[in-house]
Write a structure and sequence with these properties.
Shape: globular
Strand order of the largest sheet: 9-10-6-5-13
Number of strands: 13
CATH architecture: Sandwich
CATH topology: Immunoglobulin-like
Order of helices and strands: EEEEEEEEEEEEE
Structural class: mainly beta
Number of domains: 1
Radius of gyration: 17 Å
Oligomer: single chain
Number of helices: 0
Distance between the termini: 48 Å
């Protein structure tokens, strides 16, 4: 399977199978491998990572992780956005499942963190969004005379 673009921003994903039949989610950033998440039901951790990136005058955020042992997708809220009313607010993101084992969520906006919870309750998981620098394309200037 080839890589699939992830919503908005510099990210794409690929699902790979190991020789032991376990799936892995490969996360690419600007076309380079940034993270690998292997399917493991031994850990209750839902949230694996979260990133933010700016480009073309827009801000993009992405979070990813494993589905719960019962296969339920978590609720994902991007947090730390300042609204016009000068109070912090969050945005409930749409969650997309991948290969029946992983999830992704993304949004556009100036967020600083992410909050993930199982729909049936339990402890919430939080992470700050890791900043991704925008790649600057080198341009050739001038010409030969």
């Amino acid at each position: 399977m080839g890589t699939l673009p992830v919503g908005i921003g510099p990210w794409s994903v690929r699902v790979a199978e190991s020789g032991r039949g376990r799936a892995a989610l490969e996360l690419y950033q600007h076309g380079e491998l940034a993270d690998v998440l292997v399917d493991a039901r031994l850990t209750p951790q839902l949230l694996r990572g979260a990133r933010r990136s700016a480009g073309d005058g827009r801000r993009h955020v992405l979070a990813w992780g494993r589905l719960a042992a019962d296969g339920a997708a978590p609720s994902v809220v991007f947090t730390g956005r300042w609204s016009l009313r000068s109070s912090r607010s969050g945005l409930a993101a749409q969650v997309v499942t991948v290969a029946g084992r992983f999830w992704l969520a993304w949004a556009e906006g100036p967020f600083r963190g992410v909050l993930v919870e199982h729909p049936a309750g339990g402890p919430a998981e939080r992470l700050p969004l890791e900043r991704v620098r925008v790649r600057v394309q080198e341009r050739r200037v001038g010409g030969a005379a």
